[in-house]
Amino acid sequence: MKILHALEEITDGEPRVFVLGFFDGCHLGHQAVFKEAAKLAEEKSAGIGVITFYPHPMSVLAPDIRVSLLQSEEEKAESFRKAGMDLAVFIRPTKEFLSETAESFLKSLADIPGIKGIVTGDNFSFGKGASGNVSSMKSYFEGSDVAVVTAPLVSEGGKVLSSTTVRTLIEAGKVEEAAKLLGRNYTMSGDVVHGFHRGNDLLGFPTANLRMPDARVLPADGVYATKTRIEGKCYPSVTNIGTNPTFGNSEKTIETFIIDFDEEIYGKSFTLEWVKYIRGEVKFDSVDALKAQIESDIETAKKIFF
Ligand SMILES: Cc1cc2nc3c(=O)[nH]c(=O)nc-3n(C[C@H](O)[C@H](O)[C@H](O)COP(=O)(O)O)c2cc1C
Ligand SMILES: Nc1ncnc2c1ncn2[C@@H]1O[C@H](COP(=O)(O)OP(=O)(O)OP(=O)(O)O)[C@@H](O)[C@H]1O
């Protein structure tokens, strides 16, 4: 899949239909848009491309607001690749770009060499003040050979599924419910970094500390059954996210005990899948009490996996 950063960089003239949106998380609603695009692409004998942004436009419009996301740019690109796309345009939003009128954005789309269609969800809006919508887009392209198709909105429990809903569930520790809406477990990737070395030396449970990812949605503090993917293999594991109140750390960490695993992995990169919340983080009176609880957490995780 080719990656570009501005609409003007699309010059190959390949016939393509484009999906439009931010697509944070590539949840089931977004996947419905991808499926609709695959159908239209087949009818038009065209490829599929995506026009999206990175970073989130809100971080440009209101730099003081911290925007936490469900996927890094690389993870999102991987989801697009899996959906069969051959081009992803990650526009780098600027204040000027975001203040463009809806009409001017439509003109930029019409000017893309080879464009055969546009697919969005029914609730897609665009342009300054989000003044453009699906019906203004349909009117603009009427009579041209660019088809505008919308995917019906996917709902869950009577509510339209959105990235915002998934973020809220994860922040509340409800990673299982989030997984149902994402169609996969919530994941995070990064390197194994050094912690305080208490895990192995003091507790007898070595933990792989994940480098704290930048601008990502974090599950609520607590202990979770997780899966750890490292060098092509997947292991059951148990993860603590929080400040280790027993030791009074000042910074939040994400540390994982991988079950039945004994390898040196400092500096290696791994992917964590958040499967199920087990319990909240507790301040224990003694190291022995914490050790006993970690043993019990491992047994709970084993019951979930085996
Ligand atoms: C499964 C699991 C559960 C944990 N639960 C708690 C907890 O409830 N309270 C706490 O203070 N620390 C908890 N910890 C974190 C330990 O305090 C931590 O592993 C230890 O301080 C080692 O940290 P280090 O990797 O920085 O050396 C837990 C760790 C694991 C692996
Ligand atoms: N539930 C859904 N069903 C079908 N299409 C959707 C759904 N949610 C979003 N889309 C479409 O997917 C594209 C990306 O939308 P967007 O990134 O705004 O998603 P969102 O989940 O609504 O995010 P947020 O919660 O941040 O507003 C748009 O074309 C949008 O219309």
TrEMBL record:
The entry's function note states: Catalyzes the phosphorylation of riboflavin to FMN followed by the adenylation of FMN to FAD.
Q: State the family it belongs to.
A: Belongs to the ribF family.
Please give the CDD domains that the UniProt record associates with this protein: FAD_synthetase_N (cd02064)
- GO BP: any one term: FMN biosynthetic process
Species of origin reads Dialister hominis
Name under which the protein is recorded: Riboflavin biosynthesis protein
Query: Which InterPro entries is this protein grouped with?
Result: Cyt_trans-like, FAD_synthase, Riboflavin_kinase, Riboflavin_kinase_bac, Riboflavin_kinase_bac/euk, Riboflavin_kinase_dom_sf, Rossmann-like_a/b/a_fold
Q: What's an example of a GO molecular-function annotation for this chain?
A: FMN adenylyltransferase activity
Q: Cite the PANTHER family for this sequence.
A: RIBOFLAVIN KINASE, RIBOFLAVIN KINASE/FMN ADENYLYLTRANSFERASE
Q: Name the reaction it catalyses.
A: riboflavin + ATP = FMN + ADP + H(+); FMN + ATP + H(+) = FAD + diphosphate
- For the keyword Metal-binding, the answer is no
Superkingdom? Bacteria
- Keyword line: ATP-binding, FAD, Flavoprotein, FMN, Kinase, Multifunctional enzyme, Nucleotide-binding, Nucleotidyltransferase, Transferase
Q: EC annotation?
A: 2.7.1.26, 2.7.7.2
The pathway to which it is assigned is: Cofactor biosynthesis; FAD biosynthesis; FAD from FMN: step 1/1; Cofactor biosynthesis; FMN biosynthesis; FMN from riboflavin (ATP route): step 1/1
The record's annotation in Pfam families points to: FAD_syn, Flavokinase
* Ranges for domain Riboflavin kinase: 181-306
